[in-house]
Amino acid sequence: MHTPTSAAKAAGVARSTIYRAIKTGRLSAHKLQGGNYAIYPAELGRAFQLDRFARAADEAGPDSFSFPKWDVG
Fold this sequence. Notes:
Multidrug-efflux Transporter Regulator, Chain: A, Domain 2
């Protein structure tokens, strides 16, 4: 689990960006009894890295994927 501070470091963004993403619903987080937030690492990846992965896949092009040699069919 991440705190907003550790999530910001992991995503490479400012802590205010994490809080803004929680407030707008872009990032799902659980509010704890003390008022802080707990953020799942997978949720952080979904909210902040999906664009990077999609862009990298688009730049690679459709011919960049191939099945392994052992795949028969």
